[in-house]
Amino acid sequence: CIEQTLFFGEDRKxxxxxxxxxxxxxxxxxxxxxxxxxxxxxLSEETTTxxxxxxxxxxxxxxxxxxxxxxxxxxKSKFDNKYGCRESLVDALRRATDLMMAGKVAVVAGYGDxxxxxxxxxxxxxxxxxxxxxxPICALQAAMEGFxxxxxxxxxxxxxxxxxxxxxxxxVKEEAFKLMKDKTVVCNIGHFDNEIDMAWLNKNYGNxxxxxxxxxxxxxxxxxxxxxxxxxxxxxxGCATGHPSFVMSNSFTNQTxxxxxxxxxxxxxxxKVYMLPKHxxxxxxxxxxxxxxxxxxxxx
Length: 300
Fold this sequence. Notes:
- By secondary structure, the protein is of the alpha/beta class.
- It has helices spanning 24-32, 48-60, 74-97, 113-124, 136-144, 152-155, 174-179, 198-205, 235-238, 245-264, 278-289; strands spanning 7-8, 13-14, 18-20, 43-45, 67-69, 105-109, 128-132, 148-149, 161-164, 184-188, 210-213, 216-221, 224-229, 273-275.
- The chain is built from eleven helices and 14 strands.
- Strands 8-7-6-9-10-13-12-11 form an eight-stranded mixed β-sheet, covered by helices on one side. The protein has a four-stranded parallel β-sheet with strand order 3-4-5-14, sandwiched between helices.
- It starts with 6 loop residues before the first strand and ends in an 11-residue tail after the last helix.
């Protein structure tokens, strides 16, 4: 599917801009079709994971076109990542499992913007939330919000629900699976499907797998039933319909303005990763104020 977006029309003209989500299109173009880079004015990237990939390319000297980091715009990361997950995580859990959320115990691995929204989503549903973190600032933020901050492997045996939101890999591995109690629900709301070690799970306990319904699989791990959602992929997309359209409008407006900026002013940018200019970030917010009935005062 990604490859089909590279050329357009009957004359098969190559792409002149890249609008990406996760870095897969960017990596395909630069690694497999490097000859196309000369005709590309710039790219914009939507996600934390994709942005990390871009910065790796800058460090390695393998980014031949200018890029705008849309993810870290305030109107993206503090809205899509936080408020979007705040609505869509519990929605996905309820659709997938029909669990009574109130009274449950959950651990959220990672307290970045996605983790913040996820922890708040669960807490608002009556779940007692624990957070695990490697970053001292994020850990302190979680504690100041009233969440218990514990080491991940100490929290897992206590949890009814395990949520990964780190953007990293190998969070839920063999040791964590074997520490879980019976009927634990495991899901991921980070970008890729490698936060939960599904390869190990399917290799060692795939013969016990029982698909309760699409995207809801029950594994028997040494006598304990563990429920894995969306095959370890994004639970809010696999088991629900993702974020609400309004919060995604913020993100997509950022993408649109980033594309216009690169197209119209490409000569201003070197082959580096840039933030969306602040005045455009503010413009995204201004465009959405009327929809929520908000009015701005003006300085005299």
